[in-house]
């Protein structure tokens, strides 16, 4: 940011902005949506918000446009000739630092940022080349970086001249569509580090408004050019946009900004520009930065359900909602939306059941408000399948589980154990529903044909119930499973529509069957004669119950040889067969099971990776974080027994740490909010030290006797956590 001492020199630019406005009074129509008009800071005009409906476009679809847009390209005006190089500029800066004479540097900045033409003259690689393609922006990125890196270390009058020049450029009269030079200037100005300072936000807001108001074709170019920006600079621009949104929502000094009612377009404009960078990030594999770097945690503190309701009610209108841009909402905030949406659905279903009961003059029963599942441990899968099939209308009620013959009262712990035991049994290799791939440590659907796929529907329903009831499951599915689960995110009304089918690539296969994927990759890069050396056709073979069966990847595939020319098609069809076609019925049942519980517009907000985190939690354990957030009852954290406990636990292997977590909470995974969300408690057990520790999984509570030595505590704790299955009272 700018130096504190000089902040008052241009804390707001209303003085010279007003002067410039007076000089520009004759320019164009002030109501033009693409022309910048910067009035006094107290009187910023209210423009219609810019928004994007997620129901129509979940992500900005850049690839739907052709590589080279065929719209007429406006002629580029002639650029002034500027010969200063990076070396010349660096020499000028060094001389200015040593002599104190900044005139040469000041002149350079004043001239360069005075207009969009001058910006292009300084930073365009070749003034005579049009650079009208998405592949090359024509920007000398190194020169831009050097100039911006030096800017914040120059005197205040130099920095002030740059901002004044930016205003001049933004006040330019626009006639007709933007040229590629204009887009280049926008791309360069977005990287200006001065916009990290709140005193420049009025100017920054108008820059963002102009960029947000560009045509889709212009956005197409900006997205592809942005993906060429270095990771460091890309992250800086994203952070700057997120900070702008946060400080507009919750300003530290409200008097610094115009009243919110006068600038309702600030946040929509910034969010739409951020969407362009998110689109650019999604075009690169691997992405430039993590998708989590687009989260704005400030939004966790606004009324998210109001945002969600607005989005549901006005999704097709121009009313702005952050839910239209779900990439900016953190996974923790999305979990809150989904939970509250689930709670509202639960209450609605339970209320309807109560009304129906009363209308038939029947005595209400509290059990009717819950999804009551009663199972025998010895027939866990079959009983669970029968219960969920019989009570399909109750799936959106609060879940309660009872194990036949056991006195445990379900306050959360039995539900967790039911999930864990059921998942463990269903995913066992002997059960045959899923195949475990040792190389990738994940499960995939068994492609064997069968007469009834109801058990796959049960697994889908279990995953839905887990999300619905905020339970984390220990499931090892590959990422493409969650991509398929959101294809589409809303169950289609037409039952003939295919579900669970998505675009899959060789990268998706690598995450499940790395050895096979490596072989196909070798085929693609093979330099010899594929047809003669491999002698393959568009046909694959699979063993099913000891019988080898063949499948054509395309009509008459057994008669079509794989050649150097068609091998890409062969690999794509092979991957699609393995991940889509061969398991379609199994996955479709799984898909419908999941959505029978979780059908909600809130799913439109989620990325596949976020669905995985909601279902499974995170496998990364941080026991130090758990230690910091643990509450105590009957103990102090300085007590000897507690110190022994944490010395032992922090020294455990990962496997024993997971067993401890499973013992105390019913799950060995970490919820979305981290260890702090477990609300883990250690209570003093007033029993003999001969007793083992006891856990109340429904309260995430560990009852620990006051063991006298670390050795005794470790021995009893390991015995306890290693023999934790079952729930009984004696």
From TrEMBL:
Protein name: Probable E3 ubiquitin-protein ligase HECTD2
Protein EC: 2.3.2.26
Entry's transmembrane regions: none
Cross-referenced Pfam families: HECT
Phylogenetic classification of the source organism: Eukaryota, Metazoa, Chordata, Craniata, Vertebrata
Enzyme class: transferase
Keyword Hydrolase assigned: no
Pathway involvement of the protein, from the record: Protein modification; protein ubiquitination
Single GO molecular function: ubiquitin protein ligase activity
Nucleotidyltransferase is among the record's keywords: no
GO biological process, one term: protein polyubiquitination
Reactions listed under catalytic activity: S-ubiquitinyl-[E2 ubiquitin-conjugating enzyme]-L-cysteine + [acceptor protein]-L-lysine = [E2 ubiquitin-conjugating enzyme]-L-cysteine + N(6)-ubiquitinyl-[acceptor protein]-L-lysine
């Amino acid at each position: 940011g700018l130096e504190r001492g000089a902040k008052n020199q241009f804390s707001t630019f209303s003085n010279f902005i007003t002067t410039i406005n007076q000089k520009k009074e004759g320019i164009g129509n002030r109501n033009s949506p693409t022309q910048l008009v910067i009035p006094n800071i107290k009187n910023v005009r209210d423009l219609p918000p810019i928004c994007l409906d997620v129901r129509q476009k979940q992500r900005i679809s850049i690839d739907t446009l052709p590589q080279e847009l065929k719209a007429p390209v406006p002629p580029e005006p002639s650029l002034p000739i500027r010969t200063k190089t990076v070396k010349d500029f660096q020499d000028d800066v060094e001389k200015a630092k040593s002599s104190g004479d900044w005139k040469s540097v000041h002149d350079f900045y004043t001239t360069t940022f005075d207009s969009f033409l001058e910006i292009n003259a300084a930073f365009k690689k070749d003034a005579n080349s049009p650079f009208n393609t998405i592949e090359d922006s024509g920007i000398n990125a190194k020169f831009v970086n050097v100039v911006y890196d030096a800017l914040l270390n120059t005197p205040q009058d130099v920095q002030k001249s740059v901002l004044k020049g930016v205003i001049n450029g933004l006040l330019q009269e626009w006639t007709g569509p933007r040229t590629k030079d204009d887009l280049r200037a926008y791309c360069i100005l977005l990287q200006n580090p001065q916009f990290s300072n709140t005193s420049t936000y009025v100017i920054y807001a108008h820059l963002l408004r102009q960029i947000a108001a560009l045509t889709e074709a212009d956005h197409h170019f900006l997205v592809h050019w942005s993906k060429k920006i270095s990771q460091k600079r890309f992250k800086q621009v994203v952070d700057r946009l997120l900070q702008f949104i946060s400080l507009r929502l919750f300003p530290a000094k409200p008097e610094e900004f115009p009243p919110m009612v006068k600038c309702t377009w600030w946040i929509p404009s910034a969010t739409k520009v951020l969407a362009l960078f998110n689109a650019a990030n999604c075009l690169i594999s691997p992405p430039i930065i993590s998708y989590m770097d687009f989260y704005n945690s400030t939004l966790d503190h606004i009324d998210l359900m109001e945002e969600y309701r607005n989005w549901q009610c006005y999704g097709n209108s121009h009313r702005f909602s952050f839910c239209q841009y779900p990439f900016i909402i953190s996974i923790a905030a999305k979990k809150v939306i989904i939970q509250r949406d689930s709670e509202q659905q639960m209450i609605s279903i339970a209320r309807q059941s109560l009304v129906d009961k009363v209308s038939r003059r029947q005595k209400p029963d509290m059990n009717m408000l819950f999804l009551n599942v009663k199972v025998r441990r010895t027939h866990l899968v079959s009983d669970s399948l029968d219960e969920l099939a019989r009570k399909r209308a109750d799936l959106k009620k609060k879940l309660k589980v009872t194990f036949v013959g056991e006195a445990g009262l379900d306050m959360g712990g039995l539900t967790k154990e039911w999930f864990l035991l059921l998942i463990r049994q269903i995913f066992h290799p002997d059960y045959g529903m899923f195949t475990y791939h040792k190389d990738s440590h994940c499960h995939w659907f068994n492609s064997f044909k069968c007469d009834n796929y109801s058990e796959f529907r049960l697994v889908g329903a279990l995953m839905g119930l887990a999300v619905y009831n905020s339970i984390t499951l220990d499931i090892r599915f590959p990422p493409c499973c969650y991509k398929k689960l959101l294809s589409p995110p809303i169950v289609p009304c037409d039952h003939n529509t295919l579900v669970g089918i998505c675009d899959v690539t060789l990268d998706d296969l690598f995450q499940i069957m790395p050895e096979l994927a490596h072989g196909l990759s070798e085929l693609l890069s093979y330099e010899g004669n594929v047809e003669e050396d491999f002698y393959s056709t568009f046909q694959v073979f699979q063993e099913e119950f000891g019988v080898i069966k063949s499948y054509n990847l395309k009509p008459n595939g057994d008669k079509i040889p794989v050649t150097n020319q068609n091998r890409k098609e062969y690999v794509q069809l092979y991957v699609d067969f393995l991940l889509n076609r061969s398991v379609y019925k199994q996955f479709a049942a799984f898909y419908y099971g999941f959505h029978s519980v979780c059908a909600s517009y809130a799913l439109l907000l989620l990325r596949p990776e976020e669905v995985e985190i909601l279902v499974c939690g995170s496998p990364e354990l941080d026991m130090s974080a758990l230690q910091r957030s643990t509450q105590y009852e009957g103990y102090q954290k300085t007590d000897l027994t507690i110190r022994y406990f944490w010395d032992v636990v922090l020294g455990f292997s990962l496997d024993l740490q997971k067993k401890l977590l499973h013992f105390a909470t019913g799950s060995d995974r970490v919820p979305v909010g981290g260890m702090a969300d477990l609300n883990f408690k250690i209570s003093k057990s007033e029993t003999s030290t001969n007793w083992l520790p006891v856990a109340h999984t429904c309260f995430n509570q560990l009852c620990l006797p006051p063991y006298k030595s670390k050795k005794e505590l470790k021995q009893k704790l390991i015995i306890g956590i290693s023999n934790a299955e079952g729930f009984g009272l004696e």
